[in-house]
Amino acid sequence: MKHIGLDFGTANTSVSVLDGEELAVLPLERQSVSLPSTLFFDFEDGSTQIGQAAFDRYYFGDQGRFLRSFKSALGTRTIDHTIRIKHDTYQIRDIIRHYIGEVLSRAQAQLGTTIDSLVVGRPVNFIDDNPLADQQAEDTLRQIVSDLGVSNIEFQLEPIAAALNYGVTIVGEEVVLVIDIGAGTSDFSVVKFQAKGSADSVKSEVIANCGIHIGGNDFDKVIALERVMPLFGYRQRFKRRPELEAPRSYFLNASSWHQIDLLYDRKVLATLAELEPQMEQPDTFARFSQLIRSRQPHKVLTSVEQAKRKLGADDATQVEMPFVEDSVSLPLSVSQLNTHINELCIQIIATANQAIENAGLKKPDIDTVYLTGGSMGIRHLSQMVASEFEHSKIVEGDRSTAVARGLALDAKVKFG
Ligand SMILES: Nc1ncnc2c1ncn2[C@@H]1O[C@H](COP(=O)(O)OP(=O)(O)OP(=O)(O)O)[C@@H](O)[C@H]1O
Ligand SMILES: [Mg+2]
Asked: Residue 376 and residue 385: Cα distance in Å, rounded?
């Protein structure tokens, strides 16, 4: 029997399979085991694409609608947000169904079987401090996967899955703090391992979990707002009432991967046109309207994300925006990045400490800190983790597949 796990991520999705003793992550797009969580409706030929292909179609010129980070809509009102595409309308829940449906059919084609039983990963909190909305998020995801024909669906917390993946390498007793910093959320588990050996013989006890809705998308958002949006009128004041700033909501939406679509409403462009002559620098507002009209805000965030990732290795880079008029390029140094994201990083570290406190433990009780998630590529964050947990062994897991692999291991435990 094959045991399958689905890690539906805010930015990337993976499917893993445990077949006997063999654990693998399936290549979902060419050789890549990590498929971007994106979808593109092509207005020209009516097709839809997912993954990198969706991104390429959007970025390199086809007319259409691009969506990313739809996982963030789970448990929020945005899940019912309606998108009009030509003569049809879709809700974000339809987008998620379409995306996961395509992922599962690619997986099934490779496995040569239908997927009847599946362990699906979920963050500790889809929504912070709102158990009802959090449960709704899980229920919606369960319904979507069930509509796609999967009969047995179990959920597992993403950091526990990562812990299970690490667990197969453990030989002695170990108390592990898992830190998984993704695009949408940061998730933590404290797990005590008692045994050694193969997937079958690992004994683990989950002592505590903690999560916060902060991730790489929030880093992108703060960089976009602080460095890029002023170019488009953010923080502009009214000529006649200099004590008043332009409404922030448009710029917040333009800086949030999962909210960009809210800008593609005629009322938004009409309001921006009304505001334009009233602002100190009307041309910046005109540039913002043009950005929205040409469906380019995702390109801005892509440029921001690329710059952020470059600063994982370099000390300075540029946010390159060749698609805006006069091809703008804004410098971004690692120290500027650190200033922008510092508060968010402090909250992430505080949540890690909260997980330890919830476990009734103290920092010295943590033998190992196991790291995963793409946002661990942020140097400021990895330095903060290293100094916060200087007495623990730090183990770098595979940033993109640790959760998925653990979900397949868990499928064996759950479905036998
Ligand atoms: N080298 C890097 N430096 C900084 N950030 C990076 C780097 N590489 C990837 N990222 C960020 O990591 C995030 C994606 O990580 P990951 O694939 O773990 O998220 P996810 O699993 O899809 O999200 P989640 O688990 O929150 O739903 C993105 O925000 C991306 O910008
Ligand atoms: Mg993840």
From this structure: 10
- Determine the distance separating the centroid of ligand 1 and the alpha carbon of 377, expressed in angstroms: 8
Considering every ligand atom shown, identify the ligand nearest to the alpha carbon of residue 12 and give its number.
1
Closest CA to 412 of 118, 191, 167, 158: 118
Q: Is the CB of 182 under 6 A from ligand 1?
A: yes
184 in a structural domain: no
How many angstroms separate the alpha carbon of residue 282 from the centre of ligand 1? 36
Kindly give, in sequence order, each residue whose CB lies less than 8 Å from that of residue 277, ignoring residues fewer than 6 positions away.
none
First to last CA, the chain: 9
Q: What is the rounded average pLDDT for all residues in the chain? A: 95
What is the span of the domain harbouring residue 250?
217-338
Ligand 1, closest atom to CA 34? Answer: 17
Pair (10, 126) in one structural domain = yes
Say how many Å lie between the CA of residue 127 and the centre of ligand 2.
Answer: 15
pLDDT band at residue 371 using 50, 70 and 90 as cut-offs: very high
* Residue 217, ligand 1, Cβ within 6 A: yes
Contact 12 CB / ligand 1 (< 6 Å): yes
- Please write the tens of the pLDDT for every residue from 80-93: 999 888 788 999 99
Q: Tell whether ligand 1 has an atom less than 6 A from the beta carbon of residue 11.
A: yes
Asked if residue 198 is part of any domain, the answer here is no
Asked if 20 and 104 sit in the same domain, the reply is yes
pLDDT of 46 > 90? The answer is no
- Does residue 209 belong to any structural domain of this protein? no
Ligand nearest to the CA of 406: 2
pLDDT on residue 342? 98
Residues 6+ positions from 78 with CB-CB distance below 8 Å: 72, 92, 258, 259, 262
Could you tell me the maximum CA-CA distance found in the chain, to the nearest angstrom? 72
Closest ligand to residue 309's CA: 1
